[in-house]
Structures are given as structure tokens and as C-alpha cells.
Design goal:
By secondary structure, the chain is of the alpha/beta class. The chain has a single domain, classed as Glutaconate Coenzyme A-transferase. The protein has six helices and eleven strands. Strands 1, 2, 3, 4, 8, 9, 10 and 11 form an eight-stranded mixed beta sheet that branches. The protein has a three-stranded antiparallel beta sheet with strand order 5-7-6. Helix 5 (about 100-110) crosses helix 6. It is globular and about 50 Å long. The N and C termini lie far apart (about 60 Å).
């Protein structure tokens, strides 16, 4: 039951060219920085990456984009990465843009074993092209399929050797759903604690969903958009 691995390099063993990865995080909050850096250094390529965002230039998934290690992005918000824009417009990168709520639910459904669901989001737009439409309560809905991955890579605040995880703040937006949807789930954490130190009432991801865990290091935890206001006189 001890799922601890030494570091990110050991954690990503088995990730091969052409695989599909889920990577948690919201903007630059709660992203698995150590594992992304390890993949960047290893040079694993032809990846399909499922992530709410595509990082920024030269940070987060932006590192993998810069080295052209990603062949396809399945994302929601991608507006902060110039290299992503360049590759998408030039046709170098295959992109599937999904409404944010639909992306979250497709990941959650994958982890819950639900193959597909109907949602009104995206009806009447390019998102709905080629998808089944049904009417519920007088409103058209499109059929969206669940998402799963060969590996899910998440970032948590605290975890124990059994793989139980707690997230903090905005990091809970996508990490918990993605942790459930990977065939193998890797968790990097700020703090690796002893079993019993985590209050069972506040565990967000039970250890049954996690196969590998390690304590990360040297996190930058960048702020994507810093907004300030002047203090009133």
C-alpha cells in the first residue's frame, strides 16, 4: 500500500510517445509542475494532453508546446499562450476546444464509468457538429462522451503514502475529477504526511484512485494574471 515514489522522474516511468495524458490545474493554479518538467526533460512526444488550459509561454504545458511534444490539446481556456496560438493557426497542433463545464463533466464522467451524457452547452455552435441532439424539457441537448487517459497527473496540497489527497482552493477545480479518470494516476504534493494525519472528512481524492505519489519541490506557483487596485485615500 506504500505508493510513494522518489521523484517526478520515477513517477512518469511508463509514459510513452503517443499516449493520452490528463493534467490537472486551473490556469497556473494547482498544476503538476514537477511532472511537466520531467516530461520536458525526457522528451516524450506525440502526446494528447487533456487540460483546462495550455499553460503560458515557457511555463506549465507551454514547456511541452515549445518543444513540440504535444500533438493534440483537448482544452477549454487557451488564451494566455502565444506559442499555442501560433501552432494552432499554422496547423501544427490539433486542438479540440470544449466548453469549460463540459470538459469538467467529461472528465468526471470518465472517472465514474459513465460513457456519455447530454448537455445544452455548445448546442447551435461548432461544438455540436456531428453530435447527437435530443430534446429534454423542450430544450435541445448534445451528446458528449466521457474522457479518460493513459495517465492522469495531478497536483495536491497534502497526501499520504496510501494516495489520499487534499487540495487547496482553486486547485480543486479539475484535479479531483482527473485523478479519477486515469488508468494510472500520479500525484505530486506540497506535503507528504503520515497516514492518519489527514482528516477523513476532508479527503478530496481517496487513495484508491492514486497509484503513485511523491513530494514535489521548487514550485514557482506563478500568478497568471495579477490584478490590483489602488487603496482608497
Amino acid at each position: 500500500m506504500n505508493k510513494i515514489v522518489a521523484d517526478a522522474q520515477e513517477a512518469i516511468e511508463g509514459i510513452e510517445d503517443g499516449m493520452t495524458l490528463m493534467l490537472g490545474g486551473f490556469g497556473l493554479c494547482g498544476i503538476p509542475e514537477n511532472c511537466i518538467s520531467a516530461l520536458h526533460q525526457k522528451g516524450t512526444s506525440q502526446l494528447t494532453c487533456i487540460s483546462n488550459n495550455a499553460g503560458v509561454d515557457n511555463f506549465g504545458l507551454g514547456l511541452l508546446l515549445y518543444k513540440k511534444q504535444i500533438k493534440k490539446m483537448i482544452s477549454s481556456y487557451v488564451g494566455e499562450n502565444d506559442e499555442f496560438e501560433r501552432q494552432m493557426l499554422s496547423g501544427e497542433l490539433d486542438v479540440d476546444l470544449i466548453p469549460q463545464g463540459s470538459l469538467a463533466e467529461r472528465c468526471r464522467a470518465g472517472g465514474a464509468g459513465i460513457p456519455a451524457f447530454f448537455t445544452p452547452a455548445g448546442y447551435g455552435t461548432e461544438v455540436a457538429e456531428g453530435k447527437e441532439v435530443r430534446i429534454f424539457n423542450g430544450k435541445p441537448h448534445i451528446l458528449e462522451t466521457a474522457l479518460t487517459a493513459d495517465f492522469a497527473i495531478v497536483k495536491a496540497w497534502k497526501g499520504d503514502r496510501f494516495g489520499n489527497l487534499m487540495y487547496k482552493g482553486t486547485a480543486r477545480n479539475f484535479n479531483p475529477a482527473m485523478a479519477m479518470a486515469g488508468k494510472i494516476t500520479i500525484a505530486e504534493v506540497d506535503e507528504l504526511v503520515e497516514p492518519g494525519e489527514l482528516d477523513p472528512n476532508f479527503i478530496h481524492t481517496p487513495g484508491i484512485f492514486v497509484q503513485r505519489i511523491f513530494q514535489g519541490k521548487d514550485y514557482e506557483k506563478r500568478i497568471e494574471q495579477r490584478t490590483v487596485r489602488k487603496l482608497a485615500n
